[in-house]
């Protein structure tokens, strides 16, 4: 940003602030932990962490179990607060499969990756691979997907989709999930999506079977498609929201929705 100030001779001198140096990125759009801005200082710090930190001295297989326990097993619900076009994306969490009306749910250990570069490298992928992402409505899901780096999309394995998004998806107005998330293993269809698509004389189970078949026709049989009952596996509701005011930061930062869960506002598909 330029700043003007007067000099002794009455002229105006304009000085420009130096822009903040951006974190180095890899081809996938993720933070490149192999690049060290100050090789000497960072190398020494990295070595000291690996030899002196009680956590990082634990054997890798045990450390991975700790990471998974700390950041996995949750449904992370992305929601929008405010005007739809400029809504601030936020998130809330709950254990996968728990009832939607419970008042208290555990939160993701959102700062684990900030312990060190090594912790960042080990923890960040687990936040995507070990959790299920759900979305308040179609606009929120579109924006979250649009804000993902390619590398982040690679790690997503489980999603719950809102009813409106499912309608556009099944009519061909949204790409298949396998094209968005190459390693997707599970797609959840909300109970409301089932109810509004139930045909005359059709049982709920028959509607579910038809929806599962429709999704498999687009995605193939290698993806698990679930239609959970009301109260679990929420996909597209507004009953829980945690608002954050921290600005969006490029990279794997834990801003509003964890490791860029997306969330800028403050992550068409």
UniProtKB/TrEMBL annotation:
Top-level taxon: Eukaryota
Pfam families found in the cross-reference section: DUF7730
Compositional bias (Basic residues): 13-23
Basic and acidic residues: bias regions: 1-12
UniProt-listed InterPro entries: DUF7730
Span of domain DUF7730: 50-166
Positions of the UniProt region annotated as Disordered: 1-26
Protein name stated in the entry: DUF7730 domain-containing protein
UniProt source species: Paraphaeosphaeria sporulosa
């Amino acid at each position: 940003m330029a700043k003007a100030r007067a000099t002794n001779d009455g002229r105006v001198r304009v000085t420009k602030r130096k822009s903040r140096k951006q974190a180095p990125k890899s081809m996938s759009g993720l933070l490149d932990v192999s690049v060290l801005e100050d090789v000497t200082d960072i190398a020494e710090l990295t070595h000291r962490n690996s030899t002196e930190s009680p956590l990082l001295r634990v054997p890798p297989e045990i450390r991975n179990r700790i990471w998974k326990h700390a950041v996995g097993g949750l449904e992370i619900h992305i929601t929008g607060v405010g005007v739809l076009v400029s809504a601030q994306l936020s998130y809330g969490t709950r254990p996968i499969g728990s009832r939607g009306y419970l008042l208290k749910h555990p939160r993701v250990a959102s700062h684990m990756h900030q312990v060190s570069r090594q912790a960042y490298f080990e923890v960040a992928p687990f936040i995507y691979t070990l959790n299920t992402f759900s979305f308040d409505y179609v606009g929120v899901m579109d924006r979250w997907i649009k804000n993902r780096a390619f590398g982040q999309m690679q790690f997503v394995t489980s999603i719950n989709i809102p009813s409106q998004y499912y309608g556009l998806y099944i009519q061909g107005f949204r790409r298949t999930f396998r094209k968005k998330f190459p390693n997707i293993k599970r797609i959840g269809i909300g109970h409301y999506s089932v109810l509004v698509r139930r045909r005359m004389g059709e049982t709920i189970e028959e509607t579910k079977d038809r929806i599962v078949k429709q999704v498999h026709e687009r995605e193939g049989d290698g993806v698990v498609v679930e239609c959970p009952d009301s109260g679990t596996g929420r996909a597209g509701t507004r009953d829980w929201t945690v608002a954050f005011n921290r600005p969006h930061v490029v990279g794997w930062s834990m801003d509003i929705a964890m490791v860029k869960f997306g969330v800028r506002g403050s992550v068409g598909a």
